[in-house]
Amino acid sequence: MYPNFKILPKEDKADLKARIAESIAFEKQRTRRKRLRTLSWSVAAVLFIGLGITILFRQEEKEISPIEQFAKNNTTEGSSFEKSDEVKLVLSNQESVTVNDSTTIAYDASGNKINVNNKQIKQTKSVDAQYNTVLVPYGKRAQLSLADGTLVWLNSGSKLIYPTTFNKETREVFLEGEGIFDVAHNAAKPFFVKAANNYSVRVLGTLFNVSCYSADAKVSTALLRGKVQVAYAKKGFFNTDTLQAVLKPGMIASLDKKQQIIKTTVQNVEPLFSWRKGYYEFSEQRLSLVLEKLTRYYNVTFVMNRKANQKETYSGAFTLNDDLDKVVKTLEATTGFEFVYNAQTRAITIN
């Protein structure tokens, strides 16, 4: 038997409506509290994740080596040295020394004495690491002999930061541009070449070339002798992958900065080391690659007014002491194209 609400007295009807309204209000209030509780947990979760990311980045900052931190805090604008006419050695006390052509910057075993320009420079001993910097403008090259006996050749438009002596468990230098390293063997102190974009080369004793110009789309390492390992820490908020590749003689590792991938190839790497001897050697290379090397060394721009065969390759050599007029004549004889040089704009038009 079901109750008949129609026959309820007015007082009972009013009481029933009040209780129903109270029940509905209670349910709405409980739902609102539940939503607020869920929102509070969501905000807390976001804050926790944000805190975790902050801690992660702080940890990554702590993992940056001292020489990388020094390079980060002591950036040099390209116009400051790339457009200069002379090689500069900047000491840890910010004193600048002009390096003469064909001069080797040589350190003694202690790292406190430097032979340069047939003179000896003495540096004050310090418990803390002291970093010196070599700046190489366009059209110039430089050679160093570091405190551990490692030999370094720097190409045009390059910068090398290094400690005056290697007192720690590892030997680390920081490179922008292109350098050839003949590393003194020391199994107890592995040698690292650090570069921008989280790229590094690890070696015990070997001869290799690293090209890491900031304007280039790729970073490359070529091995002539020994064995090296290249590593690249991929960028991204949640990306912790590190790409690695081990090179044997005759191998090149190329890092594509945009795609964040490393590819290795096997080829004749000898021509990539020729510039340390004073000449550029090209062996079956496309014209675009030849012009790219000359663009950087002579600080000129090539303007192509004709369509070149991308499959055609060229071989030959340029003496790096040659002036541009002689370089242009060599290019004309090799390619059969007309090269017109404008000295004011430093542009070479190819017709």
Automatic annotation (TrEMBL):
Pfam families: FecR (PF04773), FecR_C (PF16344). The keyword Transmembrane helix applies. The keyword Membrane applies. Keywords: Membrane, Transmembrane, Transmembrane helix. The chain crosses the membrane at residues 38-57. GO terms for molecular function: sigma factor antagonist activity. Residues 136-229 form the FecR protein domain. Residues 280-345 form the Protein FecR C-terminal domain. PANTHER family: PERIPLASMIC SIGNAL SENSOR AND SIGMA FACTOR ACTIVATOR FECR-RELATED, PROTEIN FECR. This is Iron dicitrate transport regulator FecR. It comes from Flavobacterium cheongpyeongense.
